[in-house]
Amino acid sequence: MTTFQITLPDALAADAERAGLLSSDSIEELLREKLKAQCTEQLFAAMDRMAAVDDGEYMSPEAVAEEIANMRAERRAQAR
Predict the structure, then answer these.
(1) Domain residues of the chain, as ranges?
(2) What percent of the chain has pLDDT over 90?
């Protein structure tokens, strides 16, 4: 277990103490909720970035197979 010390304004500390938010269990729950929210925000931000990327032109399976065949032919020609 890790022990830490925080500094809060007196009024906030008093309000938090009355609400039962300064117990180890309450602070642990608050931190876990905040971490989960940050992970969710990061996930959605990543999804937004991915959606903004131009996928370019769609290639059919046949076109992909043709590109692979051409690449292999070029490699064979370079190996000689």
Answers:
(1) 10-79
(2) 85
